[in-house]
Write a structure and sequence with these properties.
With about 230 residues, the protein is α/β, with parallel strands linked by helices. The protein folds into two domains: about 10-20 and about 110-234, Rossmann fold; about 20-105, DNA polymerase, domain 1 (Orthogonal Bundle). It has eleven helices and six strands. The protein has a six-stranded parallel β-sheet, sandwiched between helices. Strand 4, helix 10 and strand 5 form a beta-alpha-beta unit. Helix 5 (about 90-105) packs parallel to helix 7 (about 135-145). The longest helix has 20 residues, at about 45-65. The protein is elongated, with a radius of gyration of 18 Å. The model has no long low-confidence stretch (mean pLDDT about 95).
Length: about 230
């Protein structure tokens, strides 16, 4: 049953909401591992990935609260991963960091049904992106996946100088498209960045349970397990 409340503006997160970042990142890291022969230090890719993942999560969390700069994450995650094996090579660190972003931006893997859902929603709503991702890859993802024509604006934290869950980026996004938050909804996979951020700003939210986690205990306005459920809401 469709909502009786009429929304006009749907704001989407990009990574792991529409763009399957986890799948693309995994493939890209494997390409980096092979290209740079990291098996010289790591017994296999799984060992490398486990070390990288722990470091990457920690650095991203620090970046989100402005404890680190972009390059601290971009290069630091590979620098620290190599350091696990006592490898200190800035040229290799730089190559890994740049190759990873290039490999990621060359992939066009979307979450199941993402493009079809976006096309249908585009017929009745204004669509926008709010993302914490790096500028040099997010816009390319939009173009390569075919999402770009359906979105009126892409708001990136790097350009706004504020990251989700800060109300600054939500306020900027809404004002920049002349929308009202009462007529807007945030759709995303991250409880803290997307759901809590939008909720504290006063915008309704749809939590996309991309990772099939336990229920969010009613934190979000709606919770969905697949993107097609959006068509039942809107």
């Amino acid at each position: 049953m469709k909502l009786t409340k009429k929304y006009k503006h749907l704001f989407f997160d990009l990574d792991n909401t529409l763009f399957d970042f986890d799948a693309c990142a995994l493939m890209s890291l494997k390409e980096c591992f092979d290209k740079h022969q990291l098996n010289k230090w790591f017994s296999n890719f799984d060992e490398f990935f486990a070390a990288y993942s722990e470091i990457n999560i920690r650095l991203w969390n620090e970046y989100k609260v402005n404890k680190l700069k972009k390059d601290d994450v971009k290069y630091g995650r590979f620098r620290e991963t190599l350091a696990v094996k006592n490898v200190r090579d800035e040229d290799l660190t730089t190559s890994l960091a740049e190759d990873f972003l290039q490999f990621c931006s060359d992939k066009n893997i979307l979450v199941d049904n993402a493009l079809n859902v976006v096309k249908k929603l585009h017929e009745s709503y204004n669509l926008y992106i709010i993302s914490n991702g790096f500028v040099e890859v997010q816009n390319r993802k939009m173009d390569l996946t075919g999402l770009a024509p359906y979105f009126k604006k892409v708001v990136l934290s790097e350009e706004v100088k504020a990251q989700k869950p800060s109300r600054v980026i939500f306020e900027y996004a809404v004002k920049s498209v002349n929308a009202r938050k009462s007529e807007s909804v945030m759709i995303g996979d991250n409880i803290e960045a997307d759901i809590e951020g939008a909720k504290s700003f006063g915008m309704d939210q749809v939590y996309f349970d991309y990772n099939k986690l336990p229920e969010n205990h009613g934190l979000a306005t709606w919770t969905i397990k697949n993107l097609e459920e959006l068509l039942e809401i809107f």
